[in-house]
Each structure stands twice: as structure tokens, then as C-alpha cells.
Design a protein that fits this description.
340 residues, Isopropylmalate Dehydrogenase, 12 helices, globular
Length: 340
């Protein structure tokens, strides 16, 4: 990945004190309070304070009940850290045993995090929303149509009115992957591949995926094995993907494809492409998580504010046991500083 912008390096070197108006603010949301989200947020925030990392102000949107469930005592420097309980209710959280109330807490934390980041952006103060993992199905019981952070945040920002001008993307040390579709069935993902959807997705990367309007070379995966082998293994690539590529190249975008998915990710790791657009969830994330699990940052490309997240789930099986690895969160923090 590229070096952080000069202003980020300056903040790192100077350790700017407690001037909160100059420091960026990271708003962390708890995710599912019964998962490992609260634990990794509390542990990493404690480590940062202990080591004197003063590069940004922290807002932890975590329920008091989740903190109490972990028996966590954390020193709070009011100049660098603020704790916010999104529900403010007296209740019990049991790590590893999610309840409908936990889903309500997860959604309330997310909504509060968005509100705070938007308010900071309206004040022209640098801010980022960093989300811990949540479980989708319980929240879908509360919020119809909920399939995850990405679509929920895009819908809240009104982006769905403008075509596919947002994408789920993952940044790792030597691989950047965006997804044409994310949390849907494979059958639905195939049905979503069209000339228009591929065109919209690549345009989104061209607008938001790099400095200015230069995201670098973009590779588009083929849908079928060997990108269809000229129609022998399926005609979708020639009928749906290639026409989009031709249209985009005519617009001056440096895009290539459809390319066989079994080799394109390694080509990107070698530097042939800056981005790979995968046509469905597992096509892209098997590659990312094999190459860099625990080092990849989930970035919602196209939102009016910066949102990032870890590359793992709620891990109910180890929640509350004090063994959750904070390495992924640490990688996300460093990547988020670069993106600001």
C-alpha cells in the first residue's frame, strides 16, 4: 500500500496533544455486543492509551452492559477517548450467547456512530466510522432488508438513488478487491451481473478508488471458468462483461477484462493491476482472505464519509474468553489513517 499522506505522517511524528479540533476522530461501533467486537475495541484502545498513541481522538460506541460483561476497567483520557452507550439501558450481555436485545444494541450503536461521524464532517473535522462485526440475521428481524453494513449505510446516505455508486472493497498490503455484489445468494449474484452493473461498478472505482480520478489499472474478473473460454464455458462474459469493458475503455478508464479469476488476483499481487473487481462475494474474498486474512480492511467505497471495518466476524465461540486477536483491528486503524 502507498505511504500515508504527508499530513498523517506529520500527525504521527508530532503527537499533537489534546487539540481535538485538529486530531481526526475515529468513531468505533461495538458490532454485536455478544461477539468479540467490544473486547477488541477495549483492548486496542487501552493499548493505545498505555503506549501514548495520540494520532486520533477515539469515540467508543459500546454498551455499558458489554463492558461490564468483560469486567473491563479502562483508563479514560477525556482528551483522547469518549465512551458512549447507544442504548443507555440496564441489561445483561452474555458473551458468546447473542439475544434479540444484542441485535438491537448493535443497530443502535451503528446508527449512533453514523450520526456522530456525519456531525463531525459537517463541521469540516476529519472523521472515520470504524465498525466491529455484527450478525446480519438477528438485525434483519428488526430492520427489514438488512444484509450488512454496506447496503445499510449506502441506503442511509441515499446512494441507491444514483445507481451502484458504492462498493464493498477490501484493502490488504498487496491486493485491492472490490465486489460487484456482496451479501446475497450465488444465484442472485449471477443475476446481478449485467452490462449496466459492471459499468456502474467500474465507474465507482474510477470516481472513488484512488487519488483524484486515477484508481490505476482495474481488472474485471470473468464470471465463468477461464472467463468463458470464448463462449465454450458460458456466454455471460462475452455478452455481459466484455461490452461493459469496451464502453468503459471508450470513456478513457484503464480497465481490463473479463479475465480468468484463477490467475487475476496473483497478477494484481505482482502489480499488474491496482484493483480487481470480483463479480460475487466469494470470488473476491477467498482470494483476499487467503492472501491476507487479519490484515485486510473492509472499506465502503463511495460513502460521503469514511467507513472501514475488520475482515472477520463476530467469533461467538471465543467471545469473552480474553483471547480475541486485535491484529486485524490494528491493521484497519493504520489503513484508515492512510485513507483520511
Amino acid at each position: 500500500m502507498a505511504d500515508p499522506p504527508d499530513n498523517t505522517r506529520a500527525r504521527t511524528a508530532s503527537g499533537i496533544g489534546n487539540d481535538m479540533t485538529r486530531l481526526p476522530t475515529f468513531v468505533f461501533t461495538q458490532g454485536d455486543p455478544a461477539g468479540i467486537g467490544p473486547e477488541i475495541l477495549l483492548r486496542e484502545s487501552t493499548r493505545r492509551q498505555t503506549e501514548g498513541d495520540r494520532r486520533f481522538h477515539t469515540v467508543l460506541v459500546v454498551e455499558k452492559a458489554a463492558i461490564e460483561a468483560l469486567n473491563w476497567a479502562m483508563p479514560v483520557d477525556p482528551g483522547l477517548l469518549e465512551l458512549v452507550d447507544p442504548l443507555g439501558e440496564e441489561r445483561t450481555v452474555t458473551p458468546g450467547h447473542p439475544t434479540p436485545a444484542d441485535a438491537r444494541g448493535a443497530l443502535a450503536a451503528l446508527d449512533e456512530g453514523v450520526r456522530r461521524v456525519q456531525a463531525l464532517r459537517e463541521q469540516d473535522r476529519p472523521a472515520a466510522l470504524v465498525t466491529a462485526p455484527l450478525a446480519k440475521a438477528p438485525i434483519a428481524e428488526l430492520q427489514s432488508g438488512f444484509r450488512g453494513h454496506t447496503d445499510y449505510l449506502a441506503r442511509g446516505a441515499g446512494l441507491e438513488r444514483y445507481g451502484r455508486d458504492y462498493l464493498m472493497a477490501f484493502l490488504s498490503p498487496n491486493l485491492r478487491v472490490a465486489l460487484l455484489s456482496a451479501h446475497c445468494s450465488l444465484r442472485e449474484a449471477i443475476d446481478r451481473v449485467s452490462v449496466e452493473s459492471v459499468t456502474d461498478a467500474v465507474r465507482c472505482l474510477a470516481r472513488h478508488g484512488g487519488p483524484g480520478r486515477d484508481p490505476g489499472p482495474i481488472a474485471v474478473c470473468g464470471l465463468n471458468p477461464h472467463a468463458g473460454e470464448g463462449g465454450l464455458l458460458g456466454t455471460e462474459d462475452e455478452e455481459l462483461v466484455r461490452p461493459a469493458i469496451v464502453r468503459l475503455q471508450d470513456e478513457g478508464i484503464d480497465v481490463h477484462g473479463p479475465l480468468p479469476a484463477d490467475t487475476v488476483f496473483e497478477r494484481a499481487r505482482r502489480g499488474d493491476f491496482r484493483w480487481v473487481l470480483a463479480l460475487y462475494h466469494d470470488q473476491g474474498l477467498v482470494a483476499v482472505k487467503t492472501a491476507a486474512f487479519g490484515q485486510a480492511t473492509n472499506w465502503t467505497v463511495g460513502l460521503p464519509y469514511l467507513r472501514t471495518s475488520v475482515d472477520h466476524g463476530t467469533a461467538y465461540d471465543i467471545a469473552g474468553r480474553g483471547i480475541a486477536d486485535t491484529g486485524s483491528l490494528r491493521a484497519v486503524i493504520e489503513q484508515t489513517l492512510e485513507l483520511l
